[in-house]
Amino acid sequence: MICDFCNAPNPVWRFQARPFVVDYGSLAGASDADWAACDACRDMILANDRNGLVDRAMQIAPAIPDLAESDVRELRRWSQGLFFTHRVPCGPVPIA
Question: Is residue 41 domain-resident?
């Protein structure tokens, strides 16, 4: 399992979110469950540090095949924004 925000291995937190569709042109999918987060991303989510989340993701996993770095950054900001829009207002839960 990886952090849904930065791709770090072995996330230890789970944030509840309502299901939503992810449709970014040629990249499409759905989020039908909660989002996993590492300690660093959990802290940024709780602080509403959206720029920090994107910056961390760009440091850990900077590339998506066939996308320019600026497009990867925009995609991450957009998809993480969908998480914040659909997040259930409650605290994170440890992943067992």
Answer: yes
Q: What is the mean pLDDT of residues 14-21?
A: 92
Checking if the pLDDT of 27 tops 70, the result is no
Q: Say if 3 falls within a structural domain.
A: no
Report pTM: 0.88
Measured from the Cβ of residue 49, the count of other Cβ atoms closer than 10 Å reads 14
Residue 5 backbone class (left: φ over 0; alpha: ψ -120 to 50; beta: rest): alpha
**Total number of domains constituting the chain:** 1
User: Which structure tokens are listed for 7?
Assistant: 């791709």
Asked if residue 54 belongs to a domain, the reply is yes
Q: How many Cα atoms are found within 13 Å in the side-chain-facing hemisphere of 64?
A: 16
Specify the DSSP class assigned to residue 46: H
Please give the pLDDT value at position 63.
Answer: 81
Average pLDDT of the segment spanning 55-60? 95
> 49 is in which domain, residue-wise?
13-90
DSSP class of 40: H
